[in-house]
Amino acid sequence: MEETYASGSPYITPHNPAAINNTNLSVHLMSLASVFGTTNMPPRTVSASTRSEASSSLSGHARSTPFPKSDIQISIKNHFKTKTYTTSSPVSGVVTITTQRDIRFDSIEIDLIGTSKTRTEGYSAPNESTHTFLKLVMPIPESTYPVPRVLETGRTLTIPFHFVLPNFLTLSACHHKVDSELVREQHLCLPPSMGSWARGNWEKDDLAPHMAEVVYSIKARVWREPELDRGRAIKVMEAVKSIQVLPAFTESAPLTISENDPLYRMSRTKTLRKNLISSKLGTLTVSAQQPRAIALHPDGRMAADTVAQLDLHFTPLAADAQPPKITSVAAKIIAYTYYSAGPFNSLPNIGDFMKAGLAARRGLYSTSVSLPTATWDNNSTSWFTHRLSRRDSGYGSDTSMDEEPCVQQQQQQRPQRRKSSFATLIRTTRPPSPSTTTSGSVVHTTSIHLPLTLPTARKTFVPTFHSCIVSRVYALHVSVTLDSGAASKVSLDLPVQITVVGDAQGAAGGVGADEEELPSWAEAVEDAAVDEFLRPRVLGLMEGVSGGVGEEAGGLPGYERHG
C-alpha cells in the first residue's frame, strides 16, 4: 500500500487508516518542509520498505559514531617486533597520551615488569600462578605533569622513560625456602623470555609449552584517586608493550649425576652377539662426561659449537674377537621445561621431579630437535688394544698393561669424504684405561669426538635457567649404531648447558674490542719487572750520613743508627 503526498500540506489518505502510525515520521518531516517554504516539491511516493531502510540507517549512523576514545601509546627507541634485549641493555622511549575529552587524573606510572606464569592441572579445575620477579619503576618529575592535572581535549602529553636491564634480581624476588644457596643464586638470575613464539613475538619456535611462559613488558597507566578516601585507585588508561629478553648466562659447574637422576644416563653397557641365537661376543661400554656449554650470541641467532667425547670399551670373551664396527652416530637436543604452581625448593632436573604426583601441581614438558646423522667408513675408526700382563718381583707382583693398535686397524688411514655436514670425528686419542679388567684379558678402546651445533636457523633456543616456578634444561641424546652381525644401538643422555655471552663479549666468550683485555699473570710479572728497571732513581746522600758506606760498624747505607 502506498501513500501519496501532494504539494502543500501533507495529508494521509483516508482509505489507509492503518498506515497512520507507520507514517508519523514522514508526516512530521513534510510538515517541517512546508514550514520552511518547500511547498512546490513534486509529489513522491514512499513505500513501507523505504521507511524501514531509513529507520535502520538512522540507527546505524547512531551506532557508527560512538563517543570518541582516548589514546595512549608506548614507543621504544630503535625497537622492532623481534628485537632481543640482553643484560645491561637500555630500553628507552616515550609514552604519548592523547584524549578526546578532558580527563582528570592524579598520577602516571611507567614500569618495566617481568612475570612468569604457569598453568597446572588440578583436581577440579586448572591452577594458574603468576610470579612477578622484576618491577622497575620510572620516576616521573613533577614538572612533567600539567597544572592542573587534567588531560585536555586534543592535547598530547609526552613522557620519556629509560630502563636498564639488571644483571641480577633483588633478594625480594625469591624469598621462599630453598634446599641450598645454589638454588637461591639460580633463582636470582634474570630468566629469558619464553613462550613468545605462541604470542607471535619470536620468529621461530622456542620449544616452550603454553602452560609456562616468561614475559617482559612495559606498562604505562594513568591513575585517578577515588572521590572518597576509601577505596582503590581507579585505572583510567593503560598500554602494554612486550619485549624479548635474552639475559647473559655463564656456564655453571658440571652436574653430579647418580642413579637417582632418571633424566640422564652417563654410561651404558650392552652385550653383543652375532645374531639373536648365537653366543656372546663380548660387552661394550659407552660412557661420557658432561660436555662444555654451548654459547649463544646475545641475539640468539648464532651459537658457538662444542664437542662431546664418547669413550667406548669393548671387552671380548675370546682373545681373538674383534671390536664392533661403528656405522653411525645420531644425536638430538631434548628441551625439558619444568613448571609448577608453587616455588621450587631444589633444582627440578636433579632427582625425581614428578614423584610427588598431582597433589604437588607440577608439570614437565619435553620436545626434541634432531641433529643430522653422520656416517663414515669404518676404516677411519682406530681401536687400541690393551693387554694385561703379570710381572713378579721380590716383594710381590703387580699388573701392567701394554698397548698396541688393533690388528685390523693397522692399515693406513685414508682421508674419507664426509657424508654429512654434522662432521662427526673419531680421533686416535687414547682414552683412560679401564679399571675393572682381569689379569690376562684384552680390552679394545676408542673415543668419538662429536661436534655439537645448534640449528638456530630452525628453532629458538633459550639458555638453561632455573627460576622460582619455571625452569628449562637440556639433554643431549646420543645413539651409537654398531654392526656386530646383529645391528645394535647404545644410547646415552648427557646434560648440556646453553649459555649466552654478554653483549660486550665476542662469539667465543672473549672480551669485545671496545674493552681492554686483562693481561695474563706472566705478562703482568714481566711488565712489573720492566717498570722496576726503568723506574727513575735519585743519586745523592741523605743528611746526617757520611760519604763512606759502612764506616760505622753495623751501619746501613742511607739510614742512621740510633743508640
Class by alpha and beta content: mainly beta
Helix content: under 10%
Low-confidence stretches: 1-67, 392-400, 407-439, 505-516, 540-563
Largest sheet: 6 strands, antiparallel
Mean pLDDT, as a whole number?
76
Query: What is the CATH fold-level name of the largest domain?
Result: Immunoglobulin-like
CATH architecture group name of the largest domain: Sandwich
Instruction: Identify the strand order in the major beta sheet.
Output: 13-14-17-23-21-22
Estimated radius of gyration? 40 Å
Tell me the domain tally: 3
**What is the C-level CATH assignment of the largest domain?**
Mainly Beta
The total of helices stands at: 4
* Straight-line N-to-C gap: 141 Å
Outline? elongated
β-strand amount? 35-45%
Count every beta strand, where a strand is a DSSP E run of 2 or more residues. 27
Region (Disordered): 43-66, 394-442
Domain Bul1 C-terminal: 405-499
Pfam families: Bul1_C
InterPro entries: Arrestin-like_C (IPR014752), Bul1-like (IPR039634), Bul1_C (IPR022794)
